[in-house]
Amino acid sequence: MTITITAFERSPDGGKGLARDMRVRWALEEVGEPYDVRLLSFQAMKEPAHLALQPFGQIPTYEEGDLVLFESGAIVFHIAERRAGLLPDDPNARARAIAWMFAALNTVEPPIFDRTLVRILERDEPWYEKRLSALEVSIRRRLADLSRHLGDADWLDGAFSAGDLLMVTVLLRLKASSGILDEYPNLSAYVARGEARPAYKRAFDAQLAVFKAASAG
């Protein structure tokens, strides 16, 4: 049965690969699983048909037969658990890879995403500079810890895993919007290795094609 995911009809990221369907596309490309994409307008995302799949009116969703999932991390985890290529066979290594998935989304991503929102929504507020500075301190603290762990390794724990996939997508938001990532050369190189993976390139090109089509229309 064919997998169907949802994505923005007109992504607000400008074709930079930052929308969260990118994580799911990349995971499916890594495991060699074909999929269809149903594109949604912002209005359609808040209508009953989509809310029945995603209670918060967001993307992506994942449909496979009777199974419907939401939340990009949960979807990537589902893909990684059921298809070879994103989680190690060794039980301990597998557990560590899953821990890195949680770390990417729960520890590293929150201040990075909050920084993006603050720069968009709070730029004219009197607290803007102080709020932005506090977030960037938090981001640098997380990146310093991550950089120290990674050292000169290619990936977070041996071979590439779903933990790396999610971590790279989190760090890409910094690459696209600030020079903070450049302060940690091993993390910049880490992200570049992720972007160089053929599966990433296929996923990025697929997402970019949607943006270009929407822009042309």
Strands across the major sheet, in which order?
Answer: 2-1-3-4
Strand element count: 4
The CATH architecture designation of the largest domain is Up-down Bundle
- Terminal CA distance reads 31 Å
Biggest sheet features: 4 strands, mixed
Cα radius of gyration in angstroms? 17 Å
Helix content: 55-70%
Q: How big a fraction of the residues is strand?
A: 5-15%
Number of domains: 2
Structural class: alpha+beta
Order of helices and strands: EHEHEEHHHHHH
Please describe what this structure looks like.
The chain is of the alpha+beta class. It has two domains: 3-85 and 199-216, 3-Layer(aba) Sandwich (Glutaredoxin); 91-197, Glutathione S-transferase Yfyf (Class Pi), Chain A, domain 2 (Up-down Bundle). The chain is built from eight helices and four strands; from the N terminus they run βαβαββαααααα. It has helices at 21-30, 48-51, 72-82, 91-121, 128-150, 162-177, 185-196, 198-216; strands spanning 3-8, 35-40, 61-64, 67-70. It has a four-stranded mixed beta sheet with strand order 2-1-3-4, with helices on one face. α4 runs parallel beside α6 (162-177).
Write the layout of secondary structure elements.
Blueprint: E1 3-8, H1 21-30, E2 35-40, H2 48-51, E3 61-64, E4 67-70, H3 72-82, H4 91-121, H5 128-150, H6 162-177, H7 185-196, H8 198-216
Parallel strand pairs: 1-2
Antiparallel strand pairs: 1-3, 3-4
From the structure above, extract its key features.
217 residues, alpha+beta, Glutaredoxin, Glutathione S-transferase Yfyf (Class Pi), Chain A, domain 2, 2 domains, 8 helices
